Amino acid sequence: MTVSVSTEPLSVAIVGASGYAGGEFLRLALAHPHLKVTQVTSERNAGMPVPMVHPNLRGLTNLKFRKLADLEAADVIVLALPHNSAAKQIEKFETLGQVIIDLSADFRIKDPELYARYYGEAHPTPDKLGEWVYGNPELHREELRGATRIACAGCFATSVILGLYPLLKLGTVLPKDIIATGLVGSSAAGASASHASHHPEREGSLRVYKPVGHRHTAEVMQELPGNFPIHLTAISTPRVRGILTTIQTWLPDGYSERDVWGAYREIYGEEPFIRIVKVQKGIHRYPDPKLLDGTNFCDIGFELDVDTGRVVLMAAIDNLMKGTAGHAMQSLNIARGWDERAGLGFAGLHPA
């Protein structure tokens, strides 16, 4: 299905807009030149003005949250619901919106068996999985053009995929037992409180919370070229935003640092939100998620151990932006034929 390009602002409804991901998409949409947010839902905060939940939006909107049952039709419906919620209600949303963007994991995985393996249950609507485009613009730009169903990528998965994709596509690294470790900010766990997110437990802690079997492994397996073992480990950090992922792999015999540079330049040379960060001087020689808060950039760096051929890749993102709402907006821009940088121009802060 294709979408005609219009110069009129599109109406946007955000379902689950009181959460971190929904609130971040709302922040972007309110400043977007081609969008007009008309509805935001929250069961817990229905009737409450948006700035009471998202104080950073004071003076920017007069919207109030409404119940999901009161949702009306809109040009674009953004689903920022908990896992396994959007899929169970998708037929309702399809009657209300022409373009649907899902920020959850419900439609990311194309293979129902792979989904069941990593999410522990059968997909509620497996017949619909093939209708959705995986919302990673760097890999799926052409499929996103005119798309009306966009399943946005997971944040940890995004950092792994973007860090590895050019090197695997061009054969610059060996596709064998690749190990990725992600240092993850607390906002990746969502806005709902838990014992693990309680301040006395989280503050100052570096806690391994998923040493094996991370759900985003399914997306990485699906999206990266080749069939090889990929091992993900996630560690919680005291930061609120951001993911820094280190990926350890090996170069083939005869390859050098020059080949790594060449692969990134060939695949990402024209990408507006990918930056290769590897400098010889200063304290910011490699990617640092602190510099990316609020931005849609993915910064990628690397270092080669010439004695062993081991290459350590580094990918940093803001998990709520390039890991969620930012690439969702970038994907929507592409789908509608707009400048894919629209609404995503914030360059970050330094110092922060």
Q: Keyphrases for this structure?
A:
14 strands; 26% helix; seven-stranded mixed sheet; globular
- SS element count, helices: 10
Following the backbone from N to C, one meets helices and strands in this order, namely EHEHEEHEHEHEHEHEHEEHEEEH
Number of strands: 14
| Low-confidence region ranges | none
Strand order of the largest sheet: 3-2-1-4-5-7-6
Query: In this structure, how is the largest beta sheet organized?
Result: 7 strands, parallel
* Euclidean distance between termini CA atoms: 43 Å
Q: What radius of gyration results from the CA coordinates? A: 20 Å
Q: Helical percent range?
A: 25-40%
Mean pLDDT level: 95
Helix-strand category: alpha/beta
Shape by Cα distribution: globular
* Strand residue content: 15-25%
Describe how the helices and strands are arranged.
Blueprint: E1 10-15, H1 20-30, E2 35-41, H2 50-53, E3 65-66, E4 74-79, H3 90-94, E5 97-102, H4 112-119, E6 133-135, H5 137-144, E7 149-152, H6 155-169, E8 178-184, H7 199-202, E9 207-210, H8 217-223, E10 230-236, E11 243-250, H9 257-268, E12 274-276, E13 298-305, E14 310-317, H10 321-336
Parallel strand pairs: 1-2, 1-4, 2-3, 4-5, 5-7, 6-7, 8-10, 12-13
Antiparallel strand pairs: 8-11, 9-10, 11-14, 13-14
